[in-house]
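Review form for a predicted model. The reviewer records the input and the model, then writes brief findings.
Reviewer: anonymous (R2)
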Amino acid sequence: VQLQASGGGLVQAGGSLRLSCAASTSTFDDYTIGWFRQAPGKEREGVSFISSYYGSTYYADSVKGRFTISSDNAKNTVYLQMNSLKPEDTGVYYCAATRGLHPTVVVTTGTYDYRGQGTLVTVSS
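Model under review:
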């Protein structure tokens, strides 16, 4: 499975960005897909994941109410709408896909089968 992430960029605090992650697989519905992020000097954080199989989503407490994850199964693409961005949201966002695991398990174990290239999100104050 190849994952193609896009949508990062530079935005002022309070602004919005939308990340996309397109997956090359014929079994898109079997995968839990979402984003980890890595900020300089900080540990990797699971931001948000979605699973059509489990009908479930996960959001880190730090992004709840501001970020929305969704999937378009016809396009094999997952989107992360990021609103009310804060400087602490700055980092490299990595799209990841894991087959058969619940979103919460993916985040708590840090497990993924495939990872796309990172996309840089920079939020200026």
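Findings: The first strand starts at residue 2 and ends at 6.
Further findings: The mean pLDDT is 96.
Recommendation: see findings above.
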